[in-house]
Q: What sequence folds into this?
């Protein structure tokens, strides 16, 4: 099975490969392997909009194969759902993960905030080789820590403590994420549907 993933994010790509490893003879490729590929701006209003933009743009140059696009982000209740679809660009268009985390923590200290509840959301759009669109979602609830901890993962993992845990995702590591993360849930739903086609 040949699957092309619409991402240039190395952290996401690593996670996708871990989550999809049960597919025998899977060949995973990504948009960075196409020399002339230019991603379209992620200017949608929802995670679904942006996931669809990514998948459709890649499918325009890679049809007749499986194509996957995903948009995911962090929604913080005390910030009215921010950073949301702007999660990857919260501190600016080319912001690093640490800059985004720093801005998030700063925004949460600008006013007294007792509500640190948050959730990670992922929406995945998959196009089958025949062009059928499949949509899957997943979410993981938790709260925002007061300071970063841990060395694993990427993005906001160092400040996200999943419900029922005392450590951040960056401390809990890949084993926990591949079982319980928002991305894991969306991919498990994809795998369930994919199995029905085999």
A:
């Amino acid at each position: 099975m040949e699957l092309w993933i619409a991402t240039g994010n190395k952290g996401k790509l690593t996670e996708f490969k871990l989550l999809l490893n049960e597919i025998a003879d899977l060949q995973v490729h990504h948009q960075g392997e196409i020399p002339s590929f230019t991603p379209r701006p992620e200017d949608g209003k929802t995670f679904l909009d942006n996931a669809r933009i990514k998948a459709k743009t890649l499918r325009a140059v890679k049809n007749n194969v499986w194509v996957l696009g995903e948009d995911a982000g962090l929604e913080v209740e005390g910030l009215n759902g921010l950073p949301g679809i702007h999660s990857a660009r919260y501190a600016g268009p080319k912001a690093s993960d640490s800059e985004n985390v720093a801005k998030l923590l700063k925004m949460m200290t600008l006013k007294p905030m007792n509500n640190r509840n948050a959730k990670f959301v992922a929406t995945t759009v998959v196009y089958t080789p025949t062009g059928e669109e499949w949509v899957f979602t997943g979410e993981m609830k938790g709260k925002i820590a007061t300071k970063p901890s841990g060395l694993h993962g990427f993005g906001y993992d160092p400040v996200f403590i999943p419900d029922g845990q005392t450590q951040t995702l960056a401390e809990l590591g890949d084993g926990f994420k591949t079982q319980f993360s928002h991305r894991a849930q969306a991919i498990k739903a994809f795998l369930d549907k994919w199995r029905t086609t085999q």
Remarks:
- The chain has a mean pLDDT of 94.
- Residues 75 and 82 are 5 Å apart (CA to CA).
